[in-house]
Design a protein that fits this description.
globular; mainly alpha; 15 helices; 65% helix
C-alpha cells in the first residue's frame, strides 16, 4: 500500500498548502537576509561614521544589479528593526488572505454552479450568526453542499478527511472570528491607509472575547495589541504566523465539509480517469485480489486521492464508472 496519502480532497487545497509553505520559506529567507544586511550596515557605519552612504552602498552592492536601488540610509541606519518586522508581518498577512480567498473561489467554483459559487466563496469567510434560526455565514455554503450530497464520498472519504489534524470543524466558528479580525486588518491597509477602522475594532473585540472565553482553543497565544480608532495598525509577526496556521485549518476543514457535494464525484472521476486512461497497468488490473487492491492503492496515490474507508467499495465504484475493468 502506498504511503503517499494526501490529507485533502481538492487539488486546490493540496497546491495552496504547498504554496503557503513556499511563501513562508521565501519570506523568512528574505527576513534573515535583511536582518543580516541591516546589522552589518549599522555596524559598518558605526565604525566608519565619516563615510558617505554612497560609499557604503557600493561596498555592499558592488556588482549586484538592483532595479530601483536600495536606500541603505533609510532601510538600515534610520529604521529600527521593529519597523521591518511590521512590514514582514504585513507581507505575510496579504499573502495568507490572498491564498485563502483564491482557494475559496477555486473550490467553490468546482462544487457549486453560477452565482452559488461566488456566494459560497464569500460565505466561508464569515462566521455564522448564532442568533439566527436560518443558516448564515459559512453554514449557508455547507448547507447548500449537503442538499445534494454524494453518499459514496460521504462514506468513503469524508471520515478520514474529517479526522485530519488540521480539521477544526468543532471550533470553526471561532476560527472564522479570528479570520475576520485579520481580514479587517488587511482591508484597512487597502482602504484606510493602514488606519484602524470601526470594523477592525469590532472584529478585534469579537476575537478577543473568543480568546478570553476559550484560552486553550489555540495551541499558541495571540498577543493582539488593542487597536485605537484612527491610529496606525500595529502588526505582530508572531500573531501573523499563527494566522497562517489558522488559514491552513480553515482550508482543511472546508475541504472536508464541501467535498461531500454530489458534484465532487465528477471531480473524483476526472482525476482518476486522467491517470488511468490509456494505461493498461491501471485499467486492466490483476485477478489476484491482494495484487488488485495494491494496484488500486497506487492509482489513488498517483491521482492524489485521500485514503478511502473501503478499497473494495472504491474498486466497485470505479468499475461502474468505466475507469477500470473488472
Amino acid at each position: 500500500m502506498s504511503t503517499n496519502k494526501t490529507p485533502f480532497f481538492f487539488s486546490s487545497s493540496q497546491s495552496v498548502d504547498t504554496n503557503l509553505g513556499n511563501t513562508f520559506s521565501f519570506i523568512w529567507a528574505s527576513y534573515a537576509g535583511l536582518r543580516e544586511l541591516w546589522w552589518q550596515v549599522r555596524g559598518f557605519n558605526a565604525n566608519f561614521p565619516g563615510l558617505h552612504i554612497s560609499v557604503i552602498e557600493k561596498k555592499f552592492f558592488s556588482g549586484l544589479a538592483l532595479p530601483g536601488g536600495v536606500d541603505l540610509n533609510h532601510i538600515c541606519i534610520k529604521s529600527d528593526w521593529t519597523l521591518h518586522e511590521e512590514e514582514f508581518a504585513k507581507w505575510l498577512l496579504f499573502d495568507a488572505c490572498t491564498l485563502y480567498e483564491g482557494w475559496a473561489e477555486k473550490v467553490c467554483s468546482q462544487v457549486f454552479s453560477g452565482t452559488h459559487a461566488d456566494r459560497a466563496a464569500k460565505e466561508i469567510q464569515f462566521p455564522a450568526d448564532t442568533t439566527n434560526l436560518t443558516p448564515t455565514g459559512y453554514l449557508k455554503a455547507i448547507h447548500r453542499a449537503n442538499q445534494n450530497k454524494s453518499a459514496f464520498i460521504k462514506t468513503e472519504f469524508f471520515p478520514s478527511l474529517s479526522k485530519g489534524k488540521h480539521n477544526k470543524w468543532a471550533e470553526i466558528q471561532e476560527h472564522l472570528i479570528g479570520y475576520r479580525y485579520f481580514k479587517e486588518c488587511r482591508n484597512a491597509f487597502i482602504h484606510s491607509d493602514g488606519n484602524v477602522t470601526s470594523e477592525l475594532i469590532l472584529a478585534h473585540t469579537n476575537f478577543q472575547d473568543v480568546l478570553t472565553q476559550k484560552p486553550l482553543l489555540f495551541k499558541h497565544h495571540f498577543s493582539l495589541s488593542a487597536p485605537t480608532l484612527g491610529d496606525k495598525i500595529k502588526l505582530n509577526v508572531h500573531d501573523i504566523i499563527l494566522f497562517t496556521r489558522l488559514i491552513k485549518c480553515l482550508i482543511a476543514t472546508f475541504d472536508a465539509a464541501l467535498c461531500v457535494a454530489s458534484s465532487c464525484e465528477v471531480i473524483l472521476q476526472d482525476r482518476l480517469r486522467t491517470i488511468a486512461t490509456g494505461k493498461d497497468k491501471w485499467r486492466n488490473l490483476p485477478s489476484n485480489q491482494q495484487r488488485r487492491e495494491q494496484r488500486i492503492h497506487r492509482l489513488l496515490s498517483a491521482s492524489r486521492i485521500p485514503e478511502p474507508v473501503s478499497i473494495h467499495a472504491v474498486d466497485s465504484w470505479m468499475v461502474s464508472r468505466g475507469i477500470i475493468h473488472t
